[in-house]
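Holo prediction. Input below; ligand is adenosine-5'-triphosphate.
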Amino acid sequence: MRLGIFGGTFDPVHFGHLALAEECLAVAGLDEVWLVPAASPPHKGGKKLSRFDQRKEMLELAIAGNEKFKVEPMEADRPGPSFTIDTLEEIQKRKPNDELFLIIGGDSALEFSTWKDPAKIASLATIIVRIRPGVIMPTEQEFISQLGKELGVQPKVIFVAGPPYLDVSSSLLKERVSNNKSIRYLLPRAVEVYIQQKKLYLS
Ligand code: ATP
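Structure of the complex:
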């Protein structure tokens, strides 16, 4: 199986994430995409984070009815920062015959070489980079050659460019909720209702 792994904070999940996963699945011919919420994201610099179980529940509501998407909560079982390399190694052990694809947004791709063991990650998975609105990117060739130099190995990379670009972010949604502005049509309705019921992001 061609298995896509899409990690994120998902606080909350929104249509930008879902459209990204859908587009990468189609362009790279993936069989499934696993959405992996980070228990303790190393790159979010101590920002206030909603509870893991709530971020996971929002993801489950968001993907309901899509048989190709799955929520994988494995990072909750590991203490300390949630490093992608540990997640990939665990998935590889569980699914030794699968071909792994790591899906990341353009902003994360630009920081990839600062992650833990980036060369090891690149040896385990093809990296799918989804261009994100507002993020200025090098060309695919420039990105591959620059990353290759930084890692000392030639990474396998697939750039997924072109519309639909959805300029939505979790930060925008949180800011809108805390300012009593509508977030309708920016994320699945069930997630919006969940946020209201649990009174998330109010301050
Ligand atoms: P924040 O606003 O807190 O930065 P976020 O919306 O970027 O949150 P994350 O959960 O941090 O959400 O994102 C997980 C991954 O999804 C990252 O690799 C990010 O680049 C990508 N991503 C998020 N939103 C979009 C979008 N609208 N278009 C393309 N990629 C996106």
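Residues 38 and 154 are 27 Å apart (CA to CA). That is the main takeaway for now.
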